[in-house]
Amino acid sequence: MNIASDVTAIIAGVKTGKSGPVDTSTVNNSTYAKLYDVSTAVGSNVVYLTFRNVQKDMQVYALVKLPTDTKPSIDEIKKINYCRVIKPKQEKDLSATGPYNASAYALIIWGLNANDLNGNTEYKIYYVVTDEYGNPIDINGNSTSGVSEFTVKTLPIDIKSNISSISSFTQDLYGNFNITIKNNVSGITYKNVTETCEIIACESAPFDNKDISLQYDNNGTWSDILLNNNKYIPVCDRVYGALSSTQGFTIGDGYSETKNFKVKINKVNAYMFTIYIKDGQGNLIGKYDRGIPIEAISFTSNDINNIKAGQESQFSVFAKANNVSDDVYAQCKSTLTVSDATYSNAVSNQAIKIAIGNNPEVNFTTDSNGVVRFPQDGINMKQLNDGISIKFKTTFTKPGTYTLNLEFEDKQGNTIGGSKIITFTVK
Question: Considering the entire predicted model, what is its pTM?
Answer without folding.
Answer: 0.85
